[in-house]
Amino acid sequence: MKLGEIIFYLAVSLIGITFLYQLLKIMLKGTKAEREYEKRINESLADEYIIDPETGAKLTLEEAESGHWISHDNEYITIPEKEIEKLHTEEQKEAERAINLLRESREYKRYRFSESELEILENTKILSKYDDWSYSDCFKIKYCDGYIFMPAVVLIDKVPGYFETTYHESQIMIWVKLESNLGHYYLREKTATQKFLDIFKNDDDLKMRGYESFTIKKSENHFKVNQTLKKLKGAKGLEIEIIENNLFLKTMKFINVEELLLMKRLVKNVS
After folding, report:
1. Range of the domain at 15
2. 139 and 45 both lie in a single domain
3. How much helix, strand and coil, in percent to the nearest 5, is found in the chain?
4. What is the pLDDT of residues 147-188, one digit of tens each?
5. By C-alpha distance, which of 232, 235, 239, 266 is closest to 146?
6. Can the keyword Transmembrane helix be found in this entry's annotation (predicted)?
7. Distance CA 230, CA 270 (A)
């Protein structure tokens, strides 16, 4: 065999070995996304603390189990982006980024509802229609008499003798105190069918574009009720309820920054 042929075959062999080595390296390491996911899992497992969702404070496992720890001096502490990125779903990440806007703002102060306030909430049409609900991340609004909080609503879809499906979602809700007693009304977005039927018959007591209204107790100040609803003009995807001097607004989507900014704007409109 000539020298040139030997060199040629050696070169081909080296190229083949290099290719196989790189292929094996990729197979062992996985894709970039897989490596990043594995890295986050390992970091999460290695962490010796957890994040308190109410305050954003880092707690050791021992503190969390005992229920005793020293609260952070800064009430406005937020959950760091690095910790948010460790969450499993994009919905969870978006929710924490939205709540961070409240945590860091001086316009909102952490709050816990009293038993009497919870009783009022339990009697709303907005929340009582669910099979169950709870709340978290509640803040008192400093520029008006109101609150913003995150209700976690639960619906259970049961097919007798077959299966049971549970729907669970955390949303955004606002409670603002009004100056006048305005009766009791509940409003929700109209379906396409309801919009079509309204062409022939629209007998709602309250008129708000895109919404159907239900009258539970008529107000003596109908003009004032409509004036309040005008301040919500253009808002979509909400449930609205007025109970005497209380106005409740709730989103219908999982907590996100866009919905939170909408709710903050609506509060300033009505307050």
Report:
1. 3-30
2. no
3. 40, 25, 35
4. 999 999 999 887 666 666 888 899 999 999 999 999 999 999
5. 266
6. yes
7. 9
